[in-house]
Structures
1.
Amino acid sequence: RIAYVNGAYSSVLTPAIRIEDRGYQFADGVYEVLKVSGGGVRHIDRHLDRLGRSLAALGMRWPMGRGPLTQVVRRTVALNSLRDALVYIQVTRGVAARNHLFDANLKPSLVVTVRSLKLPSARERDEGVKVVTMPDERWTHCHIKSISLLPNSLARQRAADEGAREAWLVDRDGFVTEGSSSNAYIVDEEGRLVTRPLGQEILGGITRSLLLEAAEAEGIEFVERGFTVAEAQAAREAFLTSTSAGVLPVSTVDDRVIANGRPGSITRRLTDRLQRLELASDDG
Ligand code: PLP
């Protein structure tokens, strides 16, 4: 596998990161994950828009212009000759002798890697997946796509140890924020799609924004509000979204089966519509 690191393309195995990169020592950086399908990078503009918002929120500079970064992404994808893949873009504040204080003029470090994408299995799509809930122990700026992912990683591991595909994180008031690496949705008793509004408690998923557009196009009513674990367990349908998983039906929440345990019709319609949106977004 070939990676781009600060101006050069080389094997991902080549040592290339400095010990005193602030990403390594302080998790001082942001990232993006993009999907490649059929050799085309999907929704690159939306991802670069979000990268810009993450950088701005932390007072970081772009490592290079959007145009050149787009070219680097495409080149890295091409060098890896993968048709279905995930692109990882990481920008850290730069290299400096370890000190909490930082200089505004550091030169950001840029890494781009590509790896093959393991799509959810047919069984996961047909039967849905298990999620377990746990307290949301992250910080108060979850709208920033920060590389500081230890709470997310620990939650995901705990979910896997309990045989679940994802952890749904719950705030102090008992409302689900999102998954460890996905957004969370239910369909309520009136058949409305429900998902938490954008805010500092969740990452504004690219798939989330596409999904709400798909709902609009399908004439499916949606409401952006929080929902509790009990509401999710009593919901007609539940699902999660992310760039890598797309739309994934949720069949159980903390061992309570959702409806009849099969993916519902709204989940299916949104899955189909999103697929069409993806194919239409051939960014090349
Ligand atoms: N929420 C969190 C915490 C995430 O890490 C992710 C993606 O990894 C998402 C939501 C989904 O975002 P997207 O649809 O942009 O992949």
Note: The helical segments are 22-26, 44-57, 66-79, 122-127, 150-161, 206-218, 229-233, 265-280.
2.
Amino acid sequence: MARTFFVGGNFKMNGSNSSIKEIVNNLNNASLDPNTEVVVSPPSIFLQTVRESLNKKIGVAAQNVFYKPNGAYTGEISVEQLKDSNIDWAILGHSERRTILEESDETVSLKTKVATEAGVSVIWCCGESLEEREAGTTIEVVSKQLASLKSHISDWSRIVVAYEPIWAIGTGKVATTSQAQEVHKAIREWLAKNVSDKVAEETRILYGGSVNEKNCSELAQQPDIDGFLVGGASLKPAFVDIVNAKQ
Ligand code: PEP
């Protein structure tokens, strides 16, 4: 089964009403590869406006979701609230949340379980720090993150994995095609060994970390790279070129 190419745009904590309106207009008027699934993720305050104004062929993702259904959790948003606003996706386990907001593997896995069980698909992020890469423990680190996820979920059909080496995020230091392909292949092998051949074959594995319109085509040729999670470049018109990387 061919995996549909997937490009996610993570706006992080960037944008204003006017700049996000411009991004939405740009995407609505762009010629996007019909064979690529596109999902954009604005800050939560803009989720509903973006969902209402963006072409319905493009998905919208929250950048976080809490694992409790409702109640006294100041500052959090529930899965049901996302669904009530027609938001079908969430990015979970982004390294900025794992490091700056101190989210553990357990917290990320729990959020992913609650989201996917309620029908919200998840771009689930993993990846190693520079120290871990230099210590040669990349595959070990990613495998540990995957093992935590596996212990919480059984349905992988709503998961898209994003491999994002922390040292490549927002730094301009993109992983080489062979560095990225090596880890993507290892993730697929991990899924085959620990989940099933079917899940390994069907799960999209995205690369994230300083992807831009210049480096995307070569990365997109790799057999185990099924798309991208894009930060900085998703705020620019060049995001369209990344969506069209396979053309
Ligand atoms: C990200 O935030 O997921 C990301 C990959 O950022 P950037 O593309 O800016 O490196």
Note: The chain is about 40% helix and 15% strand.
